[in-house]
Design goal:
Strand order of the largest sheet: 8-9-7-10-6-11-12-13
CATH class of the largest domain: Alpha Beta
Largest sheet: 8 strands, mixed
Helix content: 25-40%
Strand content: 15-25%
CATH architecture of the largest domain: 3-Layer(aba) Sandwich
Shape: elongated
CATH superfamily of the largest domain: P-loop containing nucleotide triphosphate hydrolases
């Protein structure tokens, strides 16, 4: 009935669950047969999770018996979820289900028994996963997505979306410098995708003028694969690549909500970190990019319009992503002379979250970097904002600073001894 078996008795806390990286599931059909309304509600919540956005989920009541009866006259889906509260019933029920189940279908069982012998019997019958109830939405998400992720494969493709709460707040500057820190200080292979196709500045900021970029991919979706995407990338440093915007007005850049899905999916398979530099607009595709990202950074200036927009975005994203880490925000251009500002504490009180960084308004160094096509760290490695970019990079990636080799005062002597 099913060829793959594994055990999932992960009893980590909800907070830990939000920290882990779970790869999205492909386009599969999932049907659940529940015995309790609590489990049905948890599975329904999982269906609303962004990682199951491509899956087609259907929930019914009745447990194993209802599943067996349903598939006597209908083909089975890719995944069947069965809830049972009785050990004997589930084993006999699985034997009956096997007679009507199509080859290749995977079965997840939700039970109440924490019993090794039961698990062994389920594995012997080809069950793919056994979850001990009561379950939460993230338990279901983890189980379904885990069926389609090789357990030995290293998790890749964390998407970080950066967007401004208002135009002109410097979100692109922050995104590019944070991506630089991810690549240089964390030694993590990264790509910056400049999604402001008409007015993007990533090419200017990195002093790059590639002949191809993201427009070639979005206007030719049938060509998108790993080899094609690799050809479009412009190498900025050993660990940093750029997917540049054309920044021309010869076309109108109107896209459907799903226009960038294949691009993001392909980048996930080859690049450990993808930084999306999103334009300040609220369209179907920008909202979809935000909702599908692993982490979100909102850049805001300390004024009333930014506060309102940040609050609206926080509320929308929190409601749409209940199983993900909360968005984070930073304050930029703080301390503009003679400009009335909302203090960081008042901003945090309204948002109900503290900013992860407050970057001062320093037009001299930021203007020089922009005009020279350089990052702040290239102009002044010891500038205080450089450390802030590293801290933001660490927060968004969940990684510490890469260890750098330190030379010892005994190195010359040891070298001579080795030669002898």
């Amino acid at each position: 009935m099913i060829s793959y078996a594994r055990k999932n008795q992960d009893e980590t806390t909800a907070a830990t669950a939000l920290e882990e990286h779970i790869a999205p599931a492909p386009r599969v059909s999932v049907q659940a047969f529940c015995e309790t309304v609590e489990t049905a509600a948890a599975i329904q919540g999982a269906g609303d999770d962004r990682r199951l956005a491509k899956a087609h989920l259907k929930i019914q009541m009745g447990g194993v018996a209802a599943a067996t009866e349903a598939y006597r006259t209908a083909p089975t889906p890719n995944v069947i979820i069965l809830e049972t509260e009785n050990q004997a019933d589930v084993l006999s029920g699985l034997d009956q289900l096997a007679t009507v189940c199509d080859a290749g279908t995977r079965v997840i069982v939700i039970g109440r028994m924490n019993d090794v012998s039961l698990y062994r019997e389920l594995v012997r019958r080809g069950v793919s996963d056994y979850i001990i109830g009561p379950v939460t939405a993230i338990d279901v998400v983890r189980s379904i997505c885990g069926l389609f992720s090789a357990p030995e494969a290293k998790a890749v493709g964390r998407i970080i979306a950066v967007i401004g709460a208002k135009g002109g707040v410097g979100a692109s500057t922050i995104a590019h410098n944070v991506a630089w820190a991810i690549a240089r200080d964390l030694a993590l292979d990264s790509v910056v995708a400049d999604l402001d196709l008409a007015f993007g500045t990533a090419g200017l900021d990195y002093n790059q003028d590639p002949p191809q970029g993201i427009a070639d991919a979005v206007f030719s979706p049938e060509r998108v694969d790993t080899a094609f995407m690799d050809r479009l990338l412009s190498k900025c440093t050993d660990h940093l690549n750029l997917l540049a915007a054309p920044a021309t007005l010869d076309k109108v850049y109107d896209f459907s909500a799903e226009a960038f899905d294949s691009i993001f999916d392909t980048l996930r398979t080859t690049m450990p970190c993808i930084v999306l530099d999103l334009p300040h607009q609220w369209t179907g595709w920008t909202k979809r990019a935000l909702l599908s990202a692993d982490d979100i950074l909102i850049v805001a200036s300390p004024d009333l319009a930014n506060l309102r927009n940040t609050k609206n975005m926080f509320d929308t994203l929190k409601a749409a992503r209940p199983n993900d880490r909360l968005p984070v925000y930073c304050l930029n251009q703080v301390g503009v002379p003679k400009r009335p500002e909302i203090k960081a504490g008042e901003f945090a009180k309204a948002i109900e979250s503290d900013p992860i960084a407050s970057i001062a308004f320093e037009p001299q160094i930021f203007g020089s970097a922009a005009n020279n096509g350089q990052m702040i760290a290239e102009i002044s490695a010891s500038h205080r904002s450089v450390e802030m970019f590293v801290q933001i990079a660490q927060r968004l990636t969940g990684r510490g600073e890469a260890k750098k080799s330190r030379s010892s005062i005994l190195a010359p002597l040891l070298g001579k001894l080795r030669k002898q």
